[in-house]
C-alpha cells in the first residue's frame, strides 16, 4: 500500500506539501497541486482519514446512538439522518445501545477516540454528566438529557389527544393505552411519555376511566410474541379500543386480535404512533399518528451543523403531528 512519502518522492515535493494539498491548507500553486493529485491517482494512494482528522482537528463524522436500528422508527430516522448529514459533508457512525448502560458508555468512549465532531442521542441511559463532560455539540432526539442540550421532538401530547379523541368519536367506551417500558429511572426522560398524558386527559374529559398496559421490556422492540396482549385482551373482553405508543406495538395488538378472532375495527379499534412503513403493510392497514420523520431528521442535522459553526440553536424543536386514518378504525 503506497504511503504519503511515496507520493512526495514521485511528485518531487516534500511530505508537508502533500499534506497541505490533502488538507487544503496554506498556499500551494495550481501546478504543484495538480502534480500531487496526478501522482496520487497513479499510485492509487488512499489518504488516511484519521490522520487527516488529527491534522484538521475535524473528522467530518457525527456519532449516532440509538436503541436499535432494527426498530422500524429508528431505521427510518437513521436513513434520513445519514441522507442530510451527507448533504452537509458529514458521515454517520452508527451505534446500537440496546439501552444498555455499559454498551452506551463504551460507544461514548469509542466516539471520543474517533474524534467525532458531534453526537446525536437517540438513546440515553447514562447519567447526564457523561454528556456534559464531552465538550462536543450534542442534539437529543425525543428525550431530555440536559438543559443545555437541544431537543428534536414531536408534539407527543397532542398525538395522544388526537388518537384518544378518535377512539371516543368512534364509540369506544373502554379504550386502553398499551406501551413498552424501557426499565430504570430514565423512562422519565422520554418525551414520548406525554402520549399517555394526552390519552389520560382526553378520557378524563369524556368521563372514562383510563386503562394502561405496560408490556415487558424488549431488547430490540421488534414485533414479538403477542401473548402478553392476548392474555390482556382475553382478561378484559370489554376493551373496544387500543391506542398503542408505537406502530410496532400496534402490529402486536393486530396479531393478538387475529388470534382471539376479534374483528378489526368492528370489535376493537386500534391506533398506532409514528406512521412508519409497517403501518401501511399490516392487515388491516393501521390508523396512526404520523411524526414527520424526514423533517425531524433534517432539523437534527441542521442543529448539529449550526452548533459546529458556532451558532446558537433553540432548546426545544417540536414538530406537529397528524392523524392518519386507515382501516383499523
TrEMBL record:
<keyword id="KW-0238">DNA-binding</keyword>
<keyword id="KW-0678">Repressor</keyword>
<keyword id="KW-0804">Transcription</keyword>
<feature type="domain" description="HTH lacI-type">
    <location>
        <begin position="2"/>
        <end position="56"/>
    </location>
</feature>
<protein>
    <submittedName>
        <fullName>LacI family DNA-binding transcriptional regulator</fullName>
    </submittedName>
</protein>
<dbReference type="InterPro" id="IPR046335">
    <property type="entry name" value="LacI/GalR-like_sensor"/>
</dbReference>
<dbReference type="Pfam" id="PF00356">
    <property type="entry name" value="LacI"/>
</dbReference>
<dbReference type="Pfam" id="PF13377">
    <property type="entry name" value="Peripla_BP_3"/>
</dbReference>
<dbReference type="InterPro" id="IPR028082">
    <property type="entry name" value="Peripla_BP_I"/>
</dbReference>
<dbReference type="InterPro" id="IPR000843">
    <property type="entry name" value="HTH_LacI"/>
</dbReference>
<dbReference type="InterPro" id="IPR010982">
    <property type="entry name" value="Lambda_DNA-bd_dom_sf"/>
</dbReference>
<keyword id="KW-0805">Transcription regulation</keyword>
<dbReference type="GO" id="GO:0003677">
    <property type="term" value="F:DNA binding"/>
</dbReference>
Amino acid at each position: 500500500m503506497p504511503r504519503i512519502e511515496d507520493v512526495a518522492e514521485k511528485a518531487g515535493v516534500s511530505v508537508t506539501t502533500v499534506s497541505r494539498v490533502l488538507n487544503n491548507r496554506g498556499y500551494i500553486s495550481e501546478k504543484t497541486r495538480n502534480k500531487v493529485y496526478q501522482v496520487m491517482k497513479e499510485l492509487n494512494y488512499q489518504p488516511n482519514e484519521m490522520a487527516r482528522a488529527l491534522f484538521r482537528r475535524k473528522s467530518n463524522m457525527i456519532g449516532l446512538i440509538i436503541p436499535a436500528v432494527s426498530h422500524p422508527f429508528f431505521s427510518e430516522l437513521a436513513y434520513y439522518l445519514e441522507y442530510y448529514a451527507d448533504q452537509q459533508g458529514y458521515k454517520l457512525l452508527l451505534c446500537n445501545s440496546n439501552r444498555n448502560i455499559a454498551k452506551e458508555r463504551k460507544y461514548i468512549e469509542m466516539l471520543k477516540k474517533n474524534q467525532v465532531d458531534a453526537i446525536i442521542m437517540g438513546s440515553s441511559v447514562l447519567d447526564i454528566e457523561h454528556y456534559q463532560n464531552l465538550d462536543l455539540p450534542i442534539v437529543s432526539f425525543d428525550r431530555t438529557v440536559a438543559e443545555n442540550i437541544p431537543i428534536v421532538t414531536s408534539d407527543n401530547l397532542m398525538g395522544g389527544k388526537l388518537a384518544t379523541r378518535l377512539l371516543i368519536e368512534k364509540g369506544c367506551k373502554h379504550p386502553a393505552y398499551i406501551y413498552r417500558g424501557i426499565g430504570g429511572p430514565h423512562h422519565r426522560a422520554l418525551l414520548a411519555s406525554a402520549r399517555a398524558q394526552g390519552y389520560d386527559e382526553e378520557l378524563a374529559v369524556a368521563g372514562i376511566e383510563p386503562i394502561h398496559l405496560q408490556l415487558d421490556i424488549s431488547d430490540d422492540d421488534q414485533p414479538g410474541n403477542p401473548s402478553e396482549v392476548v392474555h390482556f385482551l382475553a382478561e378484559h373482553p370489554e376493551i373496544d379500543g387500543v391506542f398503542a405508543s408505537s406502530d410496532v406495538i400496534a402490529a402486536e395488538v393486530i396479531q393478538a386480535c387475529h388470534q382471539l378472532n376479534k374483528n378489526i375495527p368492528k370489535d376493537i379499534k386500534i391506533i398506532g404512533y409514528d406512521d412508519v412503513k409497517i403501518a401501511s403493510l399490516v392487515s388491516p392497514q393501521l390508523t396512526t399518528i404520523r411524526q414527520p420523520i424526514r423533517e425531524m431528521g433534517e432539523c437534527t442535522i441542521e442543529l448539529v451543523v449550526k452548533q459546529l459553526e458556532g451558532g446558537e440553536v433553540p432548546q426545544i424543536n417540536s414538530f406537529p403531528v397528524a392523524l392518519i386514518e386507515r382501516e383499523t378504525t
